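Posting this for the archive.
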Amino acid sequence: MIRIGRITSSDRASAGVYEDLSGPEIEKALAAFFAGEEIEWRRVLQPDDRPTLEAALCDLVDRERCRLVVTTGGTGPNRRDVTPEATRAVLELELPGFGEIMRTRTFDVAATSILSRATAGIRRACLIVNLPGRPAAVAECLAVIGPAIKKALELLEPEYLEE
């Protein structure tokens, strides 16, 4: 069994202006990728707010003991886009290659992918990954980084979560 947290960071979706479609897309893509494994989901939908996001990330890792936390939204150049900053604030080790390869590999599909500031890293024995906010971009990026996610989880020591 693997416990996965997903956070949708969106002012409008959290206010009910529109439905969160990116969070469910994370579940769909990861369920296919982790086929055969039982997944226990932890879900958060919140506004674009850095202190709230930092607290949610820490809660999913430190209290909920997630092995993987995937965020969607808040990675662009808008001043309300604070996901990378909140993520970096809670990481023990940044893995910038995740963001680099997502931007590189999706550029031909969407030239605006270079505006993404997404990153990833480790907190305790948990991998945290930022994804863009569009559902199609979520699916595209997870297809690119899926093998690296699995390898990172193999390398991380789950016992560290129990300390």
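The longest helix spans residues 135-155. The mean pLDDT is 95.
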